[in-house]
Amino acid sequence: MRNFIQKISSLSTRAEAFDQIVHLGAGQHAEPSDYAGLRYRRLVLVEGDPEAAETLSTACEEDPSVQVIQKMISPTGGEVRFYRYNLSAMNGVLAAGGLTSLYPRLRVLGEERLSSSTLASVIEELEIDAQKRNLLILDLPGQEASLIVSLTKEQLRKFEYILIRGCKESLQNGAQTLQQTLALLKKSHYALIEEDKEEDPHWPIILLKYDGAIAEIEEELQNRARLLVEKATQIHQQGERIAELVRVVGEVSAQRDGLHGEVAAVRSELEQSHAQHGTLQHRISDLESDVLSKETLLDVLSKGRVQQDRMYEELSEERDSLQKQIETLEASLRELELQIQERDGKSLLVDAEFQKVEGQMEIIKEIFLRGNSLK
Q: Do the beta carbons of residue 21 and residue 134 sit within 8 Å?
């Protein structure tokens, strides 16, 4: 890897310097002097192996532009298993698997459980400016594809250049080949500009550059495709609306034909109604004449009623006067009856006195007659 890094030093001498260089897995295959030919503002060396990270920090402690981060990197973060081999270059999170076919004497010296972070979180922490030139170095053979997939399009495009050391074959458990990674990056508009298969053919190295022009063309094509899909959708929707309109027109036509029959029936009924209207009009005229004659009679009766009301009032007044006279006469009659009763009482007394006198006169007369006979 160091020879290839030195080989690409021209990238920062022909043009402007890199703003940041981020090297993942730097502890096994790089030294500070390897980056001497590159121009950069900050060099970030990320190493998961605590021992290798400590050695790297000691080597770079006098250079303020170099930052060493001891952090295990994995696609999803969390706890991972770290394998330590008798060949330190193979140390990492991938089990040996078929790697012993290349290194028959490879043995596991130990395993550790270490916490890990995602590549996305590291990129965000470093506050990488996407408007500047940045270089990402992935020195984690077999893991680079899964790490790249874990990034968003915006996070990946923060790096104009990506340098990768990968594996030619997928020998370790869960490893992905460099060709798989290359195909993945080409889909993200990275073009292959350098390749090294001679240093170690089992661990090839490639350098890729983000091709903004292709990205813009593809984005434009995608936009056009999206517009075409939207247009096709609109045309389909318009077709559905036209089909619906045709159906509605058919229904309206059928309704119109039905209405024609109804209109004919209504016209027939209307003609009958007109005939009935003439008959009713004559009838109304007769009734109006009858009403007029009855109104005239009513006026006469009303006038007679007024006269009757007036006569009734006069008779009522006469009646009231006669009633008062009757009441007066009745009172006089009662008074007269009382007088008659008094007179009858007096007459009875007089009759009694008269009878008494008559009796006395009879007695006197008898006495007188007796006296004459005695003489």
A: yes
